[in-house]
């Protein structure tokens, strides 16, 4: 059973920074794609950033960012967790949301399944 868990959320003032992390447990072969979403209160879930791998544990493709976070958020690889996670700088109150990681995980040689984490709360005060 593959399990994704987000961590790193919290309360920060506007202009502050947070680093989120997505941990993956269970037996996997590789992560084909990694994405981060967020959902603000009363809003639909939106894509924040994603990366498409070269179908190996080594992710070589460039991350993609939504316009709302481009230049402020940076996705980087955590080799220990085998995931790509955001460093979020210059946070704005508009960034307040629950942040979710999503991974398309290769669980054997022939199958890829999608998994979501439970989310971590990010609150940015003005």
Descriptive account of the structure:
The chain has strands at 3-7, 10-13, 18-19, 21-25, 30-39, 46-52, 64-65, 73-78, 83-88, 97-106, 112-116, 120-125. The radius of gyration is 14 Å and the shape is elongated. Helix content is 0%, strand content 54%. It has no helices and twelve strands. The chain has 126 residues and is mainly beta.
What order do the helices and strands come in, and which of them pair?
Layout: E1 3-7, E2 10-13, E3 18-19, E4 21-25, E5 30-39, E6 46-52, E7 64-65, E8 73-78, E9 83-88, E10 97-106, E11 112-116, E12 120-125
Parallel strand pairs: 2-12
Antiparallel strand pairs: 1-4, 3-9, 5-6, 5-10, 6-7, 8-9, 10-11, 10-12
Order of helices and strands: EEEEEEEEEEEE
Overall average residue pLDDT: 91
Which regions are unreliable across 5 or more consecutive residues at pLDDT < 50? Answer: none
Q: Total number of helical segments? A: 0
Care to count the β-strands?
Answer: 12
**How would you sum up the global shape?**
elongated
Specify the structural class: mainly beta
Strand content: over 45%
N/C terminus separation: 40 Å
Helix content: under 10%
Q: How large is the radius of gyration?
A: 14 Å
User: Could you describe the largest sheet, including whether it forms a barrel?
Assistant: 7 strands, mixed
